[in-house]
Specification:
The protein is an alpha+beta fold. The chain is built from 19 helices and 20 strands.
């Protein structure tokens, strides 16, 4: 009979005994159905709008949508529509959606529509213009290919996020299809967690935290910019030896040199008279331990110990804290915003992803202004500049000499039961900074060997228009 033929057109094994919804029928199937069902009331072919992400980048920050669930319907979303499930799609769901209209249908005894009356007009959603530079975003993602990590690029002059990448990544288009693509199950079970936005997750920070300790020591008068200490291979605190990364004694170093060479034992010595409380208080001032307010629901706050608790710590625990180890975590976006604040002599802008909502520009927001002497921030920046010219970030020296003067700080964070995390934070040009780049590689090893090359590709894209152009620089 006819229903058997309809089932055959749709690829069904038997005639459905209850209401059945089929998605994504082909044009050929649709034409055949129209011919077979012209006089039927119990079969309807409808078109549906499906979200499509054409650029192939920024999956984590844009997010994805899924079919509206019961909770979405309760708050007014029509059944069968789409709702944001991650990223900006979720955070700004109501802004993007607008408001549904309401239509009153009049039907006859057979259920045929004979009239309609609009009770409430629909309100279209707003368009969003992002701060993201798509070429820079793509460069970040390409630089992270095959790794687990994140890359953030900020404009320190206003907090605009130029790129925010996480790896591994995923295809958000798979979530919009109905039925949901089988690859989605793979995303959910993959041990590499491709759906996790590592740019806003908390990790051990390691040596990129050292400028916090330096600023606390300067502000309290524990040291001056001219104070010098040796940086031996090991430093004894109590009955324990705390080691430097270098296998030879170094120094004497002033603050700039200690940052340039990331000398652990130099910072251990500073931490003893300094104590833990000022370090935590300055970490808080620099935005650690709190969400940046970036606008993503997935953003974590990191972790900082309570200042009162730290005040009771033993000297060895404070020494670990001074180099970014111990019970503290930070997110890549926090580290980027911290560095931008140092670049700005203590003015902290709110990082933001949205430049404009509809026709309305999003205003730049100053979160706070830190009260510290400008020369303190300058000393930190000088130390990071020297890291590139003579210290642990010398891999960027050629780029810095021939393209744009770069300053940066490497970081290698020890983890429990795994390889170290690799960090690199940088800004350029040194004289008038216009970009901050932070690269993070989870369990990647040495920051100078793994994270720095990621940032170098991003800087190459920004200043040369090609992530690999740095390779053509003269040796």
């Amino acid at each position: 009979g006819r229903w058997e033929r309809i089932s055959g057109v749709l690829g069904l094994e038997s005639v459905p005994s209850e209401a059945t919804t089929l998605f994504n029928i082909t044009e050929t199937q649709q034409l055949a159905l129209m011919e077979l069902t012209a006089d039927l009331d119990n079969l309807e072919v409808r078109s549906r709008t499906e979200r499509f992400y054409p650029a192939g980048v920024a999956a984590h920050l844009i997010g994805y949508v899924g079919l509206a669930d019961e909770g979405d319907v309760i708050r007014g979303r029509p059944k069968g529509s789409e709702a944001g499930r991650a990223g900006l799609e979720a955070a700004l769901d109501d802004t993007l959606w607008g408001a549904a209209g309401e239509l009153l249908l009049e039907v006859d005894a057979r259920g045929h529509a004979v009239g309609a009356r609009e009770l409430r007009s629909p309100v279209p959603g707003e368009d969003l213009l992002l701060t993201i530079d798509s070429d820079l975003q793509r460069a970040c993602e390409q630089a992270l290919a095959g790794l687990r990590g994140a890359c953030v690029a900020l404009d320190p002059r206003n907090g605009a996020v130029l790129a925010l990448a996480s790896a591994p990544t995923f295809d958000p288009n798979l979530f919009t299809r109905q039925p949901v693509a089988p690859q989605v199950v793979g995303y959910l079970t993959d041990p590499a967690q491709p759906l996790l936005n590592r740019a806003v997750q908390s990790f051990d920070s390691g040596s990129v935290f050292k400028p916090v300790t330096a600023l606390a020591a300067l502000d309290t008068g524990t040291i001056t910019t001219r104070s010098q200490f040796m940086a031996p291979t090991a430093f004894r605190i109590g009955n324990r030896l705390f080691h430097n990364w270098a296998t030879e004694n170094m120094g004497p170093f002033n603050l700039e040199q200690a940052i340039a060479w990331s000398a652990n034992t130099w910072f251990y010595q500073v931490s003893i008279p300094l104590g833990g409380r000022p370090i935590i208080e300055w970490a808080q001032q620099l935005g650690l331990g709190e969400r940046t307010g970036l606008g993503l629901e997935e953003e974590r706050r990191g972790r900082l110990p309570d200042p009162d608790e730290v005040a009771t710590w033993r000297a060895g625990d404070v020494a670990n804290l001074a180099i970014g180890q111990g019970p503290m975590l930070a997110t890549p976006i926090q580290i980027a915003n911290m560095l931008a604040t140092i670049v700005n002599d203590g003015t902290m802008y709110r990082p933001h992803l949205v430049r404009q909502v509809g026709d309305s520009p999003v205003p730049t927001e100053v979160v706070r202004t830190l009260r510290a002497q400008p020369e303190f921030f300058q000393a930190l920046r000088n130390g990071m500049r020297r890291a590139v010219t003579e210290g642990t970030a010398r891999r960027l020296k050629r780029f810095s000499e021939q393209v744009a003067t770069v300053a940066g700080k490497t970081g290698t964070a020890q983890t429990v039961g795994g390889d170290s995390h690799a960090w690199f934070m940088s800004f350029a040009p040194f004289e008038r900074p216009e970009i901050v780049v932070v690269a993070f590689v989870q369990n990647g090893g040495q920051g100078s060997e793994v994270a720095l090359p990621v940032a170098r590709q991003v800087l190459s894209q920004y200043f040369l228009g090609d992530p690999n152009a740095w390779q053509n620089l003269r040796r």
